[in-house]
Design brief:
heterodimer; A: 378 residues; 0% strand; B: mainly alpha
Chain lengths: 378, 123
C-alpha cells in the first residue's frame, strides 16, 4: 500500500494545483477555438497543445529535461528561437513570400490606413505606464496593438523577455478573436450608408512595380527605422523572392516548408512557456486587458482615419471605412472580417481585395513601430 | 475580494513628458514613413503612363492605348487565356506516349533469391 502511495506522489495527479487545471482548460479552449471555429488554427493548435505540455504538473521538476524553463532541456533549446528573436524574422520571410502587394500598389492611398491603425500601439504604451509598468515593459505590451504575433515576440524578446509568454499569447489570442472583437467596433463607428460605399476596382500592376516595391520599401523603412530591419528586411526579401520569378524554389520553401516548421516549434514552445506558476498573475491579467484595449483602439484608428480621408476624396474615389479596420495586420483575418461586414450591408459589395491593401500595410506599419521603439528605447 | 482599482491601478501622473513626446513622435513617424511610400507609389504609375504615351506618340499609335488597364479587364483576359490553354491541354491528351514500366534491380525483388534451387538437391 505504501508503495502505491509513493507511486501516486510521483504522478502529476498528486502535484496538480487549480492553476495547472485552469491553464489546461485554457489550452483546451485554444484547441477548441481552432478546430470548431477555425480561428487561426495553424497557431492556436500548436500553442494550445504546448499549454497542455507546459502544465502537466512536475514537468519542470521531475528531472525529465522537459520543461521550457528547465536548464538544458530540449524544450529550452527550442525556446531559444523565441527568446533570442530567431523565429520572427524567419516567419516574416515566409509571410513576404506569400504576400501579394498588388492591391496596395494599385491603390497606394490605402497604405495610410495601415499606418493609422497603429494608434493602439502608442496609446497602449501610455496606458501601460499609467498602470505602473516600466518604460520597456510598456512598449512591449503596446505592440499587442500591432496585431502581429511575430512582431510581438521580436519586440518583447528585446525589451521585456520576462513578459514574452504573456504578451505573445495575448497577441495571438486576440488575433484569433478578431472576428469577435472587430465587428462591434466597426458597426459602432460607421453608418449603414458608409458600409455600402463601393470602391473602384483596382488597376492591374506590372511586374516591374511588384519587383520595385520590396526594394524601395526596404530602403525607405530601413533608413527611417533601422531597428525594423530584421523583420522588414526578411519580409521584403521573401516578397522579392516571390515577385522576381527567378527564385521560385526559394520562395516556395520560404512560404511552405520553412514557415510551417518554424510555426510548429514556435507554437509548441510558446504554449509550453505559459506555466501556471509564472502565467497566472495580476500582471498577466493587466496585460490581457491592455491588449484587448490596444486591439479596439487600433481598429477604431483605422476606421476613423478612413472616414477623415473620405472628407477630402472626390465622389467615386471614396474609401469604405470598414477596410480601415483591416489596417491592424492580423493577416488575413481582419481583411476577411471587413469583407464579411461589407457583405452584410450589401451582398454584392466585395471588399476583400481592397481590404488586403491596408492589411499588408499594417504588417509594415507594426514592424516599423517596433523598429522605432527598439531604436529609441534601447 | 479584488476590486477594479486593484487590478487596474491607473495613475496618470506616472506619464512623463518624454514618454508622451515619444508616443506622439513614434506614431507620427509611422504615418510619415508610410506616407512617403504612398507618395512614391502614386508617382510611379503616372511616370510609367507618361513614358508609354511618349513611346506611343513616336510610334504613331493612339495615346489612349497607354491608359492604365483596369483590374477587371486584366482578370477577363487572364480567364480567357487560362480557358484557352486548358482546352489546348485536352487536345494534347490524344497523343499517346508509351513509357517503359520496368523496375530497377534490387536483391529484394530478385527472382533468383525467391525461388528454391532444386538442382542442388539432385543426387
Amino acid at each position: 500500500m505504501e508503495g502505491i502511495t509513493r507511486f501516486f506522489e510521483h504522478t502529476g495527479f498528486a502535484a496538480a494545483t487549480p492553476g495547472h487545471l485552469l491553464m489546461i482548460l485554457a489550452g483546451l479552449l485554444f484547441i477548441w477555438l481552432a478546430i470548431r471555429f477555425e480561428y487561426e488554427p495553424l497557431l492556436l493548435v500548436p500553442i494550445g497543445f504546448g499549454i497542455l505540455i507546459g502544465n502537466i504538473p512536475l514537468v519542470g521538476q521531475a528531472g525529465v529535461q522537459m520543461g521550457v524553463h528547465e536548464e538544458g532541456s530540449v524544450m529550452q533549446f527550442l525556446y531559444m528561437g523565441i527568446l533570442k528573436g530567431i523565429f520572427p524574422p524567419l516567419i516574416f520571410l515566409g509571410i513576404g513570400a506569400m504576400t501579394d502587394f498588388s492591391p496596395l500598389i494599385s491603390n497606394p492611398k490605402l497604405i495610410l490606413l495601415g499606418a493609422a491603425a497603429q494608434l493602439g500601439i502608442f496609446l497602449t504604451y501610455i496606458g501601460a505606464i499609467t498602470l505602473g509598468f516600466g518604460n520597456l515593459d510598456a512598449a512591449a505590451i503596446g505592440i499587442i496593438g500591432g496585431a502581429d504575433g511575430p512582431t510581438a515576440i521580436f519586440l518583447s524578446s528585446r525589451l521585456a523577455p520576462h513578459l514574452i509568454g504573456t504578451i505573445t499569447i495575448a497577441a495571438f489570442m486576440y488575433m484569433a478573436l478578431v472576428p469577435i472583437i472587430q465587428p462591434p467596433v466597426m458597426r459602432l463607428l460607421t453608418t449603414e450608408k458608409e458600409r455600402k460605399i463601393r470602391m473602384k476596382p483596382p488597376r492591374s500592376v506590372s511586374r516591374r512595380e511588384k519587383v520595385v516595391f520590396p526594394i524601395v520599401g526596404l530602403l525607405l523603412t530601413g533608413f527611417i527605422a533601422p531597428g525594423s530591419l530584421p523583420l522588414l528586411g526578411m519580409l521584403f526579401l521573401g516578397n522579392l523572392l516571390k515577385e522576381s520569378m527567378v527564385t521560385a524554389r526559394l520562395a516556395d520553401t520560404a512560404r511552405n516548408a520553412l514557415i510551417d516548421t518554424v510555426s510548429i516549434i514556435l507554437g509548441v514552445t510558446l504554449g509550453a512557456s505559459a506555466e501556471a506558476t509564472t502565467f497566472l498573475t495580476y500582471q498577466s491579467l493587466q496585460i490581457f486587458i491592455l491588449g484587448a484595449g490596444a486591439f479596439i483602439i487600433s481598429t477604431a484608428g483605422g476606421i476613423l482615419f478612413a472616414k477623415i480621408m473620405n472628407l477630402f476624396l472626390p465622389e467615386g474615389s471614396k474609401v469604405n471605412p470598414l477596410i480601415g479596420a483591416a489596417g491592424v495586420s492580423a493577416v488575413p483575418n481582419s481583411a476577411k472580417v471587413a469583407h464579411r461586414e461589407g457583405i452584410r450591408s450589401d451582398p454584392s459589395n466585395h471588399l476583400i481585395m481592397h481590404a488586403m491593401a491596408p492589411n499588408v500595410a499594417g504588417v509594415i506599419g507594426s514592424a516599423l513601430a517596433a523598429g522605432i521603439m527598439l531604436g529609441y528605447l534601447l | 475580494m479584488t476590486n477594479i482599482e486593484q487590478i487596474l491601478p491607473v495613475d496618470f501622473s506616472a506619464i512623463t513628458k518624454e514618454q508622451m513626446v515619444f508616443a506622439v513622435f513614434g506614431y507620427m513617424t509611422v504615418i510619415c514613413s508610410l506616407f512617403l511610400l504612398f507618395m512614391l507609389f502614386s508617382v510611379i504609375p503616372a511616370l510609367r503612363q507618361r513614358k508609354q504615351r511618349k513611346r506611343f506618340r513616336t510610334e504613331g499609335l493612339p495615346e489612349s492605348a497607354a491608359a492604365v488597364v483596369p483590374g477587371e479587364v486584366s482578370a477577363a483576359i487572364a480567364l480567357a487565356v487560362s480557358l484557352y490553354l486548358e482546352e489546348l491541354h485536352d487536345q494534347e491528351t490524344s497523343i499517346l506516349t508509351i513509357k517503359k514500366a520496368g523496375k530497377s534491380y534490387s536483391p529484394w525483388n530478385s527472382k533468383i533469391y525467391n525461388v528454391i534451387n532444386f538442382n542442388q538437391f539432385k543426387r
